[in-house]
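FIELD: query
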Amino acid sequence: MYISANMDAVTDLTPRQIQILKAVIDEYIMTAEAVGSETLEKKHNLGVSPATIRNEMVRLTEIGMLKQPHTSAGRTPTPVAMKYYVEQLMKPKDLSVAEEVAVKEKVWSYRQEIDKLLREATKALAEKTKTLAITATNEGDLYYSGAANILDMPEFYDYQLTHELLGTLDEYAFWWKVLELHDAPFSILVGDDLSTGALTQCGFVYYKFKTSHVTGAIGVIGPSRLNYPTVIPVVRYLGNLIDEFAS
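FIELD: result
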């Protein structure tokens, strides 16, 4: 897996700070809201007082792992924290056999027609992850599905962010440039790994595939707080299916 980041800020984290950081991120992924020490003390078995949690959150803010929105007393993770979470803290959830069968059934009928296969795989990925799915190929094709899903996410109440992201759906060159920057077959891009401007608030998970006719990648994009443990196995599975059918 590829994920790039300047991890200088995390090398000196104590076990307790790591535990608190993970709890903040887990809570933020679920709620999309700033997380306070009282919430952590009540919902997560951290074994320390709210005052200690507050002090550690202040320290995590000072080193750039958390930030404090102007309108809230709570904290949210920074892109650096999300990168650290993805690489070091989270545990992807395996798809059940029933889930694998359900996904495979959605694309099985199209396994011998690459254009329809990619179109249906993109649609299946959007349906399963409840986010925006994108597939780009070296032939200049860009498929997408689930654009309406992002409107269910509070981050995309931001008009500028939504406008910029939806605008890229007409920009094949943007996505192919992103994919060409990274050689790894499976990648997770967060913050400025993905782009500049408003899209630094996003996360992108994708799998590169290669068939006898076409190469490309399939993935999902959403807020930086994507539910990575559940998104990653679905992206991997559909990418592997495309490889499998193509062979």
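FIELD: remark
Residues 7-88 form a domain with the Arc Repressor Mutant, subunit A fold (CATH 1.10.10.10).
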